[in-house]
Every structure is written in C-alpha cells, then in structure tokens.
C-alpha cells in the first residue's frame, strides 16, 4: 500500500472511462500497460487493430490505432523501452510497430501461414518468442541432413525459436 492508506483508499475509483469504444464489434483479447508507464496503455482486437491510449494527463484518449493485419490480433507485447510493439495475428503474420508514430517497422509472415497466437519480448535483450498453431506433423525418415526449423513457427515438438529485434533507427 502507498503510505498509510487503506486498501479501500487505494482502490477508490474516481470515475470510469471508455477508451476502447472503437472495438465495439470485435473482442479485445488483451489490454496491457507499457513498462514503467502508468499512463500509456494498449489493447489488441479481433478486428485486426491495436489501439495505443493515453490515460493522463487530461481525459483518456486513443493516441493512434495501428492497422495492417488482415485478421484478428491475438496478442501483443511492449518492448522493454516501450519504443516497439510486437503483434501476433490470426492472419499468420507478426508485425513490429513504432507506437510513437504508428508505423509498421517490419512484417514477418509465418512460413506455414499458420495463425500466430501469442508473442513476448524477452525482458533482458528484447529477443522475441512467438507461438503459432501449426500442428505437429511427424516427418518421414530421411537420409538427407536435417534442415533447421523455419522461423517464426513454433509448434509442439519443435525447438523454441527466438527472433532478435532491434529498435527502429
């Protein structure tokens, strides 16, 4: 608890604001605050967009809506410095975004075209972990040397793949 306040004082709400009205026709699977910033918030939607919102100062507002996915956005994550958002979409693409100006920095399609279900930045070095719903299909025996798994698909029985990420210039 902050200072000498009671539990009820810490959770005394001054009002309720609706900052996600733009997603009325689709579910919002995730809402997350930026790292160490209690006023910056984002949410993803199954309408294929991500909304970046400012809660204070002033009335809460949508700063920008990130558009570009052809399917619903199942998950997203903030980089440790909050200068990059990564999104995983049911359209089979991962996108890196610059939330400050809303531009898409990079689009990475799943090689199998599988829906991407979740993503996360590794907090120490901003590597990415991405999980898709590609089914595990046993490979027939082969005499040729094994080929490395394709990025970014990760499915049961596959090694966990990390994608190194760098912030925009």
Provide a compact summary of the structure.
The chain is built from one helix and eleven strands, in the order αβββββββββββ. It has 169 residues and is mostly beta strands. A four-stranded antiparallel β-sheet has the order 1-2-3-4, with no helix packed on it. Strands 5-6-7-8 form a four-stranded antiparallel β-sheet, with no helix packed on it. Strands 9-10-11 form a three-stranded antiparallel β-sheet, with no helix packed on it.
Q: How is this structure best described in words?
A:
There is one protein chain. By secondary structure, this protein is mostly beta strands. The chain is 2% helix and 36% strand. The chain has one helix at 7-10; strands at 30-34, 37-44, 50-54, 61-66, 73-78, 85-89, 93-98, 103-109, 116-121, 128-132, 162-163. Strands 1-2-3-4 form a four-stranded antiparallel beta sheet, with no helix packed on it. Strands 5-6-7-8 form a four-stranded antiparallel beta sheet, with no helix packed on it. It is globular and about 55 Å long. Residues 136-162 and 164-168 have low confidence and may be disordered.
Number of helices: 1
DSSP, total strands:
11
Oligomer: single chain
Largest sheet: 4 strands, antiparallel
Low-pLDDT stretches: 136-162, 164-168
- The fraction of residues in strands falls at 35-45%
Shape: globular
């Amino acid at each position: 608890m902050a200072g000498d306040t009671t539990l009820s004082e810490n959770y005394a709400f001054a009002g309720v604001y609706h900052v996600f009205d733009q997603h009325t026709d689709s579910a919002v699977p995730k809402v997350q605050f930026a790292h160490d910033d209690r006023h910056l918030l984002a949410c993803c939607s199954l309408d294929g967009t991500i909304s970046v919102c400012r809660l204070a100062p002033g009335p809460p507002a949508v700063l920008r809506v990130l558009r570009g996915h052809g399917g619903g956005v199942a998950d997203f994550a903030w980089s440790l410095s909050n200068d990059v958002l990564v999104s995983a979409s049911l359209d089979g693409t991962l996108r890196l975004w610059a939330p400050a100006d809303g531009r898409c920095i990079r689009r990475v399609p799943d090689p199998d075209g599988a829906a991407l279900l979740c993503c996360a930045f590794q907090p120490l070095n901003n590597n990415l972990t991405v999980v898709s719903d590609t089914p595990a299909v046993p490979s027939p025996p082969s005499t040729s040397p094994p080929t490395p798994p394709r990025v970014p698909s990760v499915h049961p029985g596959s090694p966990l793949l990390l994608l190194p990420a760098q912030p925009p210039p």
